[in-house]
Amino acid sequence: MLATVPTTIDHAGSWALARLSADGRPFPALVSGDRALDLSASSALGQPSSTRQLLDRWDDALPVLDELAGSSDGWQPLAGLTVLAPVEPRQVFQAGANYRTHVIDIAVAHADGSDGRTVEQVRADAAAEMDTRLEHPPYVFQGLPSAICGAYDDVVLPSDGKQPDWELELAAVIGRRARRVSPEDALDVVAGWTIVNDLTLRERIFRKDAPALGADWLAAKNSPTFLPTGPVVVPRAAVPDPGDLRLTLRLNGEVMQDESTKDMLFDVAHVIAHCSSVATLLPGDLVLTGSPAGNGLPRGRLLRAGDRMDSTITGLGAQANRCVDE
C-alpha cells in the first residue's frame, strides 16, 4: 500500500461518502476533511454494513446523511483508518474515445504511415470522424468490478503486459435503478461522483489473430487493480454540474493529463442515458465517462514499476497510486 492512511481528504461540500477499514473491518462512513463518522452503527440508517446498502435506498438515506454530517457525535480522526474503494458496483460501464483531443492523439499514435497520410491528415480525419459520431450513440463497453482497487493502493503491472497506460476519468455513481432514462433526466439518477483511473494494456486492445472481431476490452482493461477508484463519493448536490471539472494526472510529479470535462464529445447525461437504453442501471454502479488527452502511448512513455500516479478531479479528492511488478 502506498498511502492508505491520509490525514485529510479535500472534497467539495460538507461531507462525502467513503468506505473505510479499521483493524481489517470495512465499514461505510462519512468523511469531512480530516474526520470520519462510522455509519454502520446508525439506527437511523438501519445499521448498514456497506455503502451499497446506502446507495440501494439513496433517496431515503440522503437526508439522514445530511443530518448526521451536521452532528458533533461519533466523529474520529481519519488518520489511522484505511481508505478503501468507496463503492462495490455490480456493473461498470466505460465510455471510450469520448474526449476530442484524446481521440485525435490516439489516432496519430496508432497511424503507421502505411496509408500514405501525413500526421496533419490523420488529425483532420479524426476530427471529422468525431462530428459524424455525434449522429450516433456514445461508445460504451463494460468492465469487471474485480479490477477495482482503492485510491491509495498499489497498481500491479501484469508480468505479461507490455504497454500499461493511465486513463484518468470522471465516474458517476448511480443512486437509483434506471431504465431508458432521457438525457434531460439522466443526472437525477446520479448519487454522486468519484475518481477512476481506467488503466489499459494498449497492446491487448486489438488482437492480430482476430482483427474482424474488434477491440478485446476484457484483456485490455480488467487486470486486478486496473481501476483505482475513490477516495470518496461526493454527493451530486456538492458538484451539480459535471460539465466543467478539471482532470489532472501527474506521473512522478510531471503533469500528463490536464483537461476539462468541457472537451467531452458526449456529455455525462448522454452517456448515462445511453447506458440505460441498453441495460438497467443499478444503485452503486459506476459509469465512467472517458479519459482526456495526455495518455502514455502518444508520448512513448508507459508505466513501469516504481512510477507514482497522482490524480485529481475538481472537488472529488485525490488519488496516489504506486506501480509495482506482479
TrEMBL record:
The keyword Metal-binding is annotated on this UniProt entry: yes
Species of origin: Blastococcus haudaquaticus
Cross-referenced InterPro entries: FAH, Fumarylacetoacetase-like_C, Fumarylacetoacetase_C_sf
Protein name as annotated: 2-keto-4-pentenoate hydratase/2-oxohepta-3-ene-1,7-dioic acid hydratase (Catechol pathway)
Family: Belongs to the FAH family.
Coiled coil: none
Residue ranges constituting the Fumarylacetoacetase-like C-terminal domain according to the UniProt record: 92-322
Signal peptide stretch: none
Amino-acid biosynthesis among keywords: no
Pfam families according to UniProt: FAA_hydrolase
Keywords per UniProt: Metal-binding
UniProt-listed GO biological process terms: small molecule metabolic process
Domain of life of the native organism: Bacteria
GO terms for MF: catalytic activity; metal ion binding
